[in-house]
Predict the 3D structure of the following.
Amino acid sequence: MTSSTGSPDLLLLTRPGCHLCADARKVLDRIRLDLGIGWREESIDGNDELTSRFGEEIPVLLIDGVQRDFWQLDEARIRRLLGA
């Protein structure tokens, strides 16, 4: 869902202790700094539905509710998706 400011909703699904999740946070922080687009994070632990759907693909990036990337985030691809 695009926010009221017109920015896309970026949601990073993670799991504690995930080294790829740490790398994904760095990618999204660079994008946030360059483009001024915020992002949020949610752990799949404790959520049976998310664990069932994404358990083997963590981290997962959803943009406006659509899965756009997983495991190792492709920064250039994400920037293209965001129109940068």
In short: The chain has a mean pLDDT of 92. Strands lie at 10-14, 40-43, 60-63, 66-70. The first helix runs from residue 19 to 35.
